[in-house]
Every structure is written in structure tokens, then in C-alpha cells.
Amino acid sequence: MSRPRHLVGALLCRDGRLLLGRRSPLKQNFPGAWDLFGGHVEPDETFIEALARELEEELGVTLVAFKELASAALSDGGRYRIYRVDRWRGGEPTLCNDEHVELAWFSPADASSLSPLASDLYRPLFAAAAARHDAIADRLGIRPRGSVVGREGLEPPTRPL
Hints:
Elements: E1 7-14, E2 17-23, E3 34-35, E4 37-40, H1 47-59, E5 62-73, E6 79-89, E7 100-106, H2 108-112, H3 122-130, H4 135-140, E8 143-146, E9 152-155
Parallel strand pairs: 1-6
Antiparallel strand pairs: 1-2, 1-4, 2-3, 2-7, 5-6, 8-9
């Protein structure tokens, strides 16, 4: 029996805007789609360690301040945890590998209207990520949740991706 895969995603937020990347058209999964930054959690890593590694590999930045925004079940029994990243070191994020071919900052409304988007799970999270208060979670039907790092986050209804 194969081991469940675990994934992390990072949504960088600054001044009410969200950083997304357009995936390379050569990628097997979601080619050309707008996506978060992140990837697989290695067997010897925690979710947070994977988050930090992925941000360094993909954007050349060092994780400083974050909170878990959402967690969803994957069809193989693994988890996909999405984090809002509020602060980082290393300056302006830049493309550092071939995962993405373009970076852009979007308002939550503009991010929600992007097509193609790697996952529809992201749309309600964009507004929640940019919000300073959890009141928006009630309007979106997202329930508050505590994260493994002791910070409050949001969890959409759990469904396999």
C-alpha cells in the first residue's frame, strides 16, 4: 500500500493583494493554470518545513510570518494544507525554478476571476486570506479552525480534491 501524499500551498499576501504564479505549460498537473506556491511534503519533513523549503525553491524568499488558512483531504488519504504568508525575508519574490512562468499580484476579486485556476478550492480562500478579521469566514460559509502551529486558520468543508 502506498503512503498518502501530503501537500502544502502558500498564498503570499501584501497590502490586500495576493501573489499567484502561472504554472508552466510543460507541467503535467494543471499546465498554464494560476496556482499557489508549494508542493509535496517530503517523508522527513513537517508541513511547515515543506512550506519554508518550497518558498525558498520557488520564490527565493524565507518564511517569517504565516498562519494556516485551510486544510483539505486528498483522495489518497493525505492532506493539502494552505497557509497565508504575511511576511518573508529576501526581498521581492522572483521566479527561481521552472514550476511557474509568470508571477502577478492580484486583488482578491481579480484572483477569484482568473481562469484557468488550478483549484476551485482557492476562490473562497482569496477573500478570506486578504481579510484582517475572521468575519468574512462566516459570510463565505467557512468554519474557523486551529492549526497545528497554534494559529487560527480557516478550513473549508473537507472534500477530496
